[in-house]
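Structure, all two chains, one model.
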Amino acid sequence: MTHKTIKVGSLSRVEGEGALTVHARDGRVTGMELRIYEPPRFFEALLRGRSHTEPPDITARICGICPVAYQMSACQAVEAACGIEVSGPLRDLRLLLYYGEWIESHTLHIYLLHAPDFLGYESGVAMAADHRDLVEHGLALKKAGNELVAAIGGRPIHPVNVKVGGFYRVPTRAELAPVAERLRHARDIARETVSWVAGFDFPDVDHDYTFLALRHPDEYAILSGSIATSTGEAFAVEEWPAHVTEAQVPYSTALHARLDGEIGYLVGPMARYSLNSAQLCESARQAAADAGLGADCRNPFRSIIVRAVEVLHACEKALRIIESYTEPETPAIPFEYRATTGHGASEAPRGTLYHRYRVDIDGSIAEADIVPPTAQNQARMETDLLQLVEPRLHLPTDELAALCERAIRNYDPCISCSAHFLDLHVDAQ
Amino acid sequence: MSTPSRTVVIGCGNASRGDDAAGLEVVRLLRGSLPPSVATEETSGDATELIDAWAGADLAIVIDAVCSGAAPGTVHRRIDLVSGDSFRGSSHSLGLAEAVGLGEALGRMPGTLIVFGIEGGDFSIGAPLSAPVWSAVQDVAGTLSADLR
């Protein structure tokens, strides 16, 4: 057997760096390992013994791109354990914070990470040289998200103002006025962004996905809801452990999430859109229709359009909340801990993020379980890669690696803390 | 060095990744010891944050952790970054090199950019700064504090 190891550089333009190993023999892929996001495992251990008030701050450090998602899922899990529910203007502020993060994260992916694939550039930087105005638009849109997060969370990155039960302090109407002004401009850019990305040339792909996302009776679910799937399943967040399990698969060393025993379901923008698009605000629904999105989206390359639609929705909804905002009477609702288990889930930019905490009799965390979206999508990504690589094993390794990177970027995975280089190993006999 | 009228000192890093916090720690040490005209910023090292952080500055000094194979705590002084360089030593994927590329493409570079790299050894999640890196952090902060008076 000849063994060939080819280093093709880092897995560029995904959040962080990753590694992919493909083993092939006699023209067949015999093994595959996509090394991705494991830090939550470490944080689960770190949380044990800490106070029940600490998970929002501690888990926010798991991801530099989506700290709000970790804070919101953590807060809701602890609040469920304590028997409280944040509602009214405090919930609206949490929505605002979350919309800000969606705008930040999606815009970065659209403009600097994903669009270069469609326009033939090797990076967002290379694209910026030829499309300065376009990239400036993207940066202005992202900045609107940063400012929204800073206005509610205290800082644009790693917000410090969130606590179990609400916030440490709440903004005044006057403080939100300049944020609204920037958001109005951002909304226009977001609308143009949908039109722009809809004009890209998309490979004709149609996957038979099983989607999973939160569903909320009153809104395009982002902050809370119950679980819905494209197979018609519906269950409360508390029932997550009974439906979602992790198991080993033959061709990969990573644990793969299973939904009711079935491997390879998908969370994220395509899942949210396909399950909940009727609940998008009118302008986002119209933009989606004009962009040619149907009732669902099963082409991962077109996920860039869905992200753009979600950015428009986030701008629109954030503006409406600010317009009707009245300061809550208190920045947080009081609570007392209970020695029980709480579950929480929210829609991180990359998909459903589930947290579970068991609070001990002394108020400390006895057990923590965090299931991030990228780990859930890992099996589906590997399936895509398998189908992509096997018929193309004859291609030069660098060409194959570039194709793999593009396929992975479609899912905007967060692999911040994984290995530093993409090593595409091809074992050929 | 003489301190230009608009100077910013920017620390990059992830406070939860051991020695990756070196740049942040330099900035934290410097606070309170710099003239009021010198701004300080802490960032994750994201390219879009960086070009905002140095917007309008005559002089921007960036301190980041690197991993080049040198001994932990080694200070790489005044790294010359040019557009298109891959600053692979940084643990941030769309980081300093991309910020320089993006800044140049968009005409958003500071008048002068000076980069200090502090060689890290342990980037484990939750780890504290290692002893040699902490020593280097103090060294760089001391140098900058004296230079920027």
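Chain B has a mean pLDDT of 85.
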